[in-house]
Design goal:
plant defense, 4 helices, mainly alpha, repeat, Rx_N, leucine-rich repeat, nucleotide-binding
Amino acid sequence: MAELFASMSVKWALDKLSSLLPASLQVATAPSTTSEGLEDLRMLERTMRRIHATLHDAEEHWIIREESAKVRLTELKELAYDAEDVVDEYEYEANRVSTEVFERSLNTCNGKRLSYTEFTA
């Protein structure tokens, strides 16, 4: 049962990461706009796909009796949760940067910087 939850969790994080990759290309100030940053995200995506496949195979086909196999599977699940945390942090940072860009564009009107009181008046 734990493998099923871990597999679903990895799948959710993988879907989120896959949806973030194209978005990061559109936001010029996103944290992953460097080619190195994008490659890191793509590498994480590939790794998460392998983790998901392994966990899915384990829940479907494996009868795990060896203690070492249980330890490796537990470590793999922990790694999957760590990867999910990285995806969440990336999503947060990308949203924060997008919000800052949006707020800057709202504060500038025809080249004139508006103060908060002018904007709300």
